[in-house]
Each structure stands twice: as structure tokens, then as C-alpha cells.
Design brief:
The complex is a heterodimer of chains A (209) and B (83).
Chain A (H helix, E strand, L loop, with lengths): L4 H4 L17 H20 L5 H18 L9 H28 L3 H6 L19 H19 L3 H11 L5 H8 L3 H19 L8
Helix pairs in contact in A: 2-3, 2-4, 3-4, 6-9, 7-9, 8-9
Chain B lengths: L10 H8 L5 H13 L1 H11 L15 H17 L3
Helix pairs in contact in B: 1-3, 2-3
The chains are: A mainly alpha (209), B mainly alpha (83).
Chain lengths: 209, 83
Amino acid sequence: MEDFREPFGEAHQPCVEPLSKQNPHEKRFRRLFERLYRPVTHFFTHRGFSPEDCRDLTQETFFRVYRGMKTFRGEAGLKTWVFTIATNIYRNEIRDRHAEKRSADEVSLEEALEQGRPVFGASPVEPVDELQDPLDRVLTDERARLLREAVVDLPPRMRQCVLLWLDQGLRYREIAVLLQVTEDTVKAQLFQARRRLHGTLGEHFEELG
Amino acid sequence: MATSSSKHPSPETLATYLAGELPTEEMEALREHLATCSHCARLVLDLDRFEDLQPPAGREPVSDAEVEGAWRDLHKRLDRGSD
């Protein structure tokens, strides 16, 4: 991890004054902005925000980065610090949007009746695959239930590998990063998990084939 | 997609975890959370490859002109010193 203690460490002047040619931090901040503007924008893009929202949220991130330089002590890398600020902004934005949506969704009974909107059963329903045979669906659900029960009984690391692989569809390398283990460990854990689950589930065992 | 109902760790905790600096007990609890929370798992993976993040398929890459324009806008805002 990079160490940016030198540019923004305690020994330096706090960086709160407006940007100007005289500001000694401008060049450093500009370099940081140029280096991380795209990654921060892509961070928000990947979370489904519109291009306009991404621009606003990215600007907000760097605005806070600039203001926070006064307190940044460089314990974490600067890149990590910028990322955590972007993540906090993202979480706040999601929370605010949910609050707005909840507020907009609160409609009086009279209003709903007037507009001919459903009063009961208006909550979203899980989509059902209509092409799938009902018996197949029951069998699939039953297999999934048995698999889940068997996975719970696995040792912690093995269970974590299986959940990340099956539930979240991650690759070996990604699982290794998430669990802070080597890729070989992930492979070995999944290999062992296959054997154990096969022993437990027998003919019901297909998912890890 | 898997999501956990338990409380999400702070971004700072996720970063500390990725730096390998979290105490062992907390580290194990966080692993359990990540295994069932796709939201936090994605954050950790994004942090791991932060500088290499690419736009999703179908989205235009950010142009140099856009970066320059964004810098000018931020500069104005900082000069005003407003929130």
C-alpha cells in the first residue's frame, strides 16, 4: 500500500485555505485529483448512478478530500482514504434516496382509492419463472434447501468459500482477496467442500459438481 | 444476491481488514459477514482494484476534457469555500 505520509503528514501546514496559485498544496491535490478522478467516477458508475449523479458525487468526494487534508495523518494510504470517503458518500446518498422514496410512497388511503391504486398487495412480488415446471421448481427449491443446511455445517473457512462461490458467484482470486488467503487455499477448501457435500447429500448433490 | 441483515462494517474497517491490520477476532467476524453480504464484498473487491476500476460495459470512458472541466468546477467551489 502506498504511503503518502510525506505530502500530508503532521509536519505540514493544514490544507484548508482556498485553492490558489500561492497554495503549496495545489499541485499535490491536482495530481491526486487527476490520478483518482476516473476510479472514483467508476466507483459510482458501477453502483448504477447516472453520469450527472456520478459527476456530482465525485466532486463531493474530492471536495471532502480537500477539506479533510487538515486531519489526514497518513495512517492509511491516501488512495484508501479517498475510497473510504467515496464509500461514505455513497452510503449516505443511498440512505437519503431511500428516505425520499419512503416519504413519496406514503399515500393516504383516500388518495389511493381516488387514483384507483391497489391498497392491499401493492408490495413487489418475487418474479417466478413461469416456464419452469412446478414439480421441477419444488425439487430445485428442495435441493437448494438441503444444500444450504449442509453448507451451514461446514467448518468456517470452507463455508465462507462455498458461500462466496455459490451465492455470490465469485472467482477463486476474488474469494482469496475477500478472505485474505491464497488462491490455492480457496481451491483446496472448495475441493474438500465438494467431497463433504457429496458425502452428505448423495444424489441431491449437483450444484458443486 | 446474498445480503446480510447484520450491521455493515464501516469503510474504514473494510480498508483496515484489507491492509491485514484488523485484530484476529474482528477479522474472523468480518469474513463471516463478507461471505453473506454481497454489498460489502463488492466494496472490498472495488477497494482492492480501485485504481484499475473501469467503466461498466456500455458506458463511455471519462474523457480528459471531462476531468479538466470537473477540476475547474471543483476549483470554483473551493475558492468560494462553500459546502
